[in-house]
């Protein structure tokens, strides 16, 4: 009965917010005054939709990746900074095209936004940070605008800072800022997805802290 009650609660937007709010409180929207001094915009990969027929069978960014790309393009048009996109091949036996290449194509073709660097080897957020840092430092870039969604920002900012970069968080996709409505107490598939995503990020943060407490990178 308790398990069923928790499942029903987390299948509502109101219940999902209980998990999302602690993460989103850590993700402060970018203050435009902080853009000054940054040397690059780094956009993190997310998921993909494979073999999209409307794009001639090419893979395209999913809704989370697309939101990150849209905000990254917005910042590039505003600040004129070079962009690095980071993300490799998501799994063995899956698509052969790295996420970064797919993201760069979307930025170029759909947002008329150039990409300076592609990091195509990473498969985790920690690798996003480590491999991107190598490229950026080799090009004399130390201070970055880091673009990802608000739920992911706390974990991403942590590992990018540990890579030796100066990170200015530029989160997007906030879910908990709008006032609650009656419909938010009705179960929905999107609320279950948000609960899962927030649970994943909370578990990831706990894992990182455990590794750090044990003296592991």
Please provide the count of β strands.
7
The profile of the biggest β sheet is: 5 strands, parallel
Output the structural class.
alpha/beta
Low-confidence parts:
none
**Count of discrete alpha- or pi-helical segments spanning 4 or more residues:** 7
Rg, rounded, reads 18 Å
Q: What is the typical, i.e. mean, pLDDT?
A: 94
Biggest sheet: strand arrangement: 5-4-1-6-7
Q: Oligomeric status of the shown chains?
A: single chain
Strand fraction: 15-25%
Order of helices and strands: HHEEEHEHEHEHEH
How would you portray this structure in words?
This protein has 217 residues and is an alpha/beta fold. The chain has helices at 2-10, 13-24, 63-79, 99-111, 125-138, 150-162, 189-213, and strands spanning 40-44, 48-52, 58-61, 83-86, 117-119, 143-149, 166-172. It contains seven helices and seven strands. The protein has a five-stranded parallel sheet, with helices on both faces. The chain is globular, with a radius of gyration of 18 Å.
List the helices and strands and how they pair.
Elements: H1 2-10, H2 13-24, E1 40-44, E2 48-52, E3 58-61, H3 63-79, E4 83-86, H4 99-111, E5 117-119, H5 125-138, E6 143-149, H6 150-162, E7 166-172, H7 189-213
Parallel strand pairs: 1-4, 1-6, 4-5, 6-7
Antiparallel strand pairs: 2-3
Helix pairs in contact: 2-7, 3-4, 5-6, 6-7
